[in-house]
Every structure is written in C-alpha cells, then in structure tokens.
Amino acid sequence: MDEVLLRQALEFGKPYTGKGEVASYIPELSKADGRELGICVKTIDGEELHCGYWQRRFTIQSISKAINLAMALEHHGFDAVFLKTNMEPSGASFNAMSRISDSEDIPFNPLVNSGAIAIVELLVPLGLEYMLSAVRGLCGDKYITVDEDVFHSEWSHSARNRSLAYLLQSKGLINGDVDETLRLYTQLCSLSVTAESLANLGQLLANGGVQPETGRRLLKEEVVRTTLTMMLTCGMYDGSGEFAVRVGLPSKSGVGGGILSVVPGEMGIGVYGPSLDRKGNSVAGQKVLEYISRREKLHILDRYAQRTVPTEQN
User: Fold this and answer.
1) Is residue 57 part of a domain?
2) Is residue 311 situated within a structural domain?
3) Is residue 16 annotated as a catalytic residue, yes or no?
4) What pLDDT shows up at residue 208?
5) Active-site residue, from 16, 41, 42, 65
6) Torsion over CA of 271, 274, 280 and 281, rounded to 10 degrees?
7) Dihedral sign computed on CA atoms, order 277, 293, 59, 162
8) How far apart are CA 195 and CA 36, in angstroms?
9) Mean pLDDT for all residues in the chain
10) Residue 313 clears pLDDT 50, i.e. is over it
C-alpha cells in the first residue's frame, strides 16, 4: 500500500459523503461537516500513511465498545464478561429494545448498547481517569479527553439507554448504581479521537496486543482474538454481515463517523467520515475501506483464495 492508493481510495469515497446524513439524535453531533473524509494507516512495521481529514477530532462513540470489551476481558476474564452478554449478531439496530426482553435473558453481544452498558458495569470500579489513561495508551494519543459538549448533549438525550440500563438491572445484569454505570458508558462514548488514534489502536490489535514501537504488551493475545472476532461478526451494527462480505476485516464503527479496521498481522486503519447511512455507519468510510480491501486483497479470506491448488498428476 502507498499514498497514491490512499488518495485514490479517498477520491473513490468522496462522492458518497452526500449519500448519508450526520447523526442528529445527539444534537452536538449534528454540527459535524458531512463532506469531510480522512484515513490513516499504521503498519506493524511502523509505516504511516494518511490522507484527507486524518487529524480531525471527533468523538469515538460506539468504537469505545471494542475498547471496553478488551479492558473488561483483561481485568475480569472471559467467563465473567460473557455471563453478562452473548456472542451472537443481533440483526437489529444497535439501540433496539427488542435485543433484550422478557424472553431474552442477556444481550445478544457486547457491541450493541445493551451489552455494552452491561460490560461497562465491570469497569466502574476502575473509574474514568484510569480508563482515560488506558485509552490514551492503547490509541497512542495523549490528547484524548472527554468532549464535554458532546457528553452533556448525549447525557441529556439518553432516555433510551437509560431504559436499557434499568431493564438490565431488572435482570440482575447491573447490580450497582445504574446512573454511575450509564454515566461512565456515556463518558467513554464521548472521548475525542482522530483517524490516527484509531489507526494506532488498530496497529496494536493487528500486532496481537503488543505495541510495535516499544515491544510492550498492552493486551493479552486471547483478549485481542476475542475482541477482533466480535468486531468481525458484530462491529458494524446491523450492517455487519454485508460489511464482512464486501470488506472482510474486523471493524468497529461509531456514529461520530469513525471506523476502526484491523488487518491481523499487518496493519490498523482509522477512517473518519461523519455522513452516516441508516444503520449508523460512515457511508464514504465503508466505500474507502472496500476499495482498499479489494485493491490490496486484504479480506481475511483472500489469503486462502490465493493459495495455489496443486494440479492432479496423471
């Protein structure tokens, strides 16, 4: 991959910025410019490529769910985490009430709102400052902080998430203070990042949890494997199946316009494009990733398709 390809991918994606809309259900997010588009790539060998609005700050939103999952797995282990949520794609929108009901004891997965809120309760004892420090380290970005304007906008429009949280409490999946859990969840969604921050996180995940520059292990290998698997199957909301077919990379999107993608063993990719489709995914960002995946044959199944099949000997 080189900068020429990156510019080509960005030009390919630009026309699609007009085919979606910025998030408006959180009023502060509606201020984003839907025409903006940027990308950053970090390889595990230390190469960095970038183009467009790759340094624009935006809020991480649902991409935080992947980090929260990894942190919960690190601190509490696989069994404790998956007592609170299943591991299955939901097939419905990320904030759907139907994903946990009287007939469904726990949320479908940790990347829908109900599952993510349940997971965050495990992180409440760590506190915001610890989590903020951890995210800065994982993303290689010391300037990450809570965007207070977005947080207050989101907190004041959190009736649906509040309903989910109390439903989780009624099922014994939140045992502590609901407001405390929901507040931390919302703060973590309101962290300001860039496409470069996401690429740094992707680079770390691509390298199995080891920071390439320092050789320091930040996440256990099994934590990375579980997190990437959930991203592949559930990371793009109810568009995860089509995205897996078209792009084929473990990815996580957020309604702030970001997409984190990982090419295991090779690179991390961060994309920013706040114009969203009806499922909450960056319209142009998906097209940029599809272009790169096809041109570079990055789909996780491409490596198998390219294997030479031995010819039969007569």
Assistant:
1) yes
2) no
3) no
4) 98
5) 65
6) -30
7) positive
8) 12
9) 92
10) no
**What CATH number is given to the structural domain containing 126?**
3.40.710.10
Cα dist. 313→306, 310 in Å? Answer: 21, 9
Residue 303's pLDDT band, with cuts at 50, 70 and 90, is confident
- Identified catalytic residue from 22, 42, 53, 62: 62
Q: Is 309 among the domain residues?
A: no
Please pick, among 41, 81, 135, 255, the residue that the annotation labels catalytic. Answer: 255
Catalytic residue among 16, 237, 272, 291: 237
pLDDT value of position 88? 87
Among the options 53, 185, 272, 291, which is catalytic? 185
- 128 and 174 share one domain: yes
The two structure tokens encoding residue 314: 């007569």
According to the model, what pLDDT value does residue 25 have?
A: 86
**H-assigned helices in 122-247:** 128-139, 148-155, 159-170, 178-189, 195-206, 221-234, 240-246
- Residue finishing a domain among 189, 222, 246: 189
List, in sequence order, every beta strand (DSSP E) within 28-149: 38-43, 48-52, 58-59
Given pLDDT bands bounded at 50, 70 and 90, which one contains residue 92? low
Residue 306 in domain: no
Q: Is there a catalytic annotation at residue 255?
A: yes
In whole angstroms, what is the distance from residue 71 CA to residue 50 CA? 28
241-296 per-position pLDDT tens digit: 999 999 999 999 999 999 999 999 999 999 999 999 999 999 999 999 999 999 99
The yes-or-no answer on residue 237 being catalytic is: yes
Q: Name the helix (H) or strand (E) containing 19.
A: none
